[in-house]
Specification:
Elements: H1 2-11, E1 15-21, E2 26-31, H2 35-61, H3 77-82
Antiparallel strand pairs: 1-2
Helix pairs in contact: 1-2
């Protein structure tokens, strides 16, 4: 969420005075220059949070696992939680 707020602030320079987020909602104290800037900022934040939520909860929503940590396949949750980059191996099948 911090990254989303930072990017929103770059695009729409609203002053962010305070922020808190829980698992199902968030609160912000903002000072926008005008109503349009406020609306644009919030549209960007909410739109990006909705996409992030969809990605994070997809394996649970589909009843594939009970917890995100139980998913053995590709998932960005650990990287987001621990701050570690996602890593993998590329196999170039064109090389013989």
């Amino acid at each position: 969420m911090v990254g989303i707020l930072a990017r929103a602030q770059e695009k729409y320079p609203v002053k962010v005075h305070a922020a808190v987020a829980t698992s199902n909602h968030y609160h912000l104290i903002l000072t926008p220059e005008d109503a349009d800037q406020h609306a644009d900022f919030m549209e960007f934040v909410n739109g990006n949070l909705a996409r992030l939520r969809y990605v994070l909860w997809n394996t649970i929503k589909e009843n594939l696992v009970a917890q995100i940590a139980d998913w053995e396949g590709l998932h960005c949750a650990e990287a987001l939680i621990d701050g570690r980059p996602m890593t993998g191996t590329w196999y170039d099948r064109a090389i013989e």
